[in-house]
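Hello again, I could really use a second opinion on something today. I've been staring at a protein lately and its backbone has me curious. Can you walk me through what the tokens say about the fold? Take your time with it, there's no hurry, and the full record follows here:
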Amino acid sequence: VVGFVLPSAETDLCIPNSGSGWLGSIVYLGMMVGAFFWGGLADKVGRKQSLLICMSVNGFFAFLSSFVQGYGFFLFCRLLSGFGIGGAIPTVFSYFAEVLAREKRGEHLSWLCMFWMIGGIYASAMAWAIIPHYGWSFSMGSAYQFHSWR
């Protein structure tokens, strides 16, 4: 989805070419740190609790980033959203594997990976359908603009 959002976000946030690379990579930086942090925490406090917290972090900062108007705070929100995503990925696979019967574990983990990719394709299709219609937007005064890429 990031590939679909980048051109519209660059235009809307008035980002120079030198700063546009951070839009795509900041989430992955957060994911890298988040996977390390949440993976260790999940072993200490429990996978379910850790998964609930990291998904809440991701959801909150992803939601907040859709309303942010400045480039720096947008990057900060995307970094923390990536931090939550990074915790969900290793935690969900190990948590799911714990509750599966040993003889079906490989098959069901493969299904989980497949549907993860189907979700990614679905999200990309929705981005492709929604974002080109950049004409719809709303504003609250002159300071706040909300366009379709958000």
User: Anything to note?
Assistant: Strands lie at 137-140, 144-147. The chain has two domains: 1-99, 103-132. The chain is about 75% helix and 5% strand.
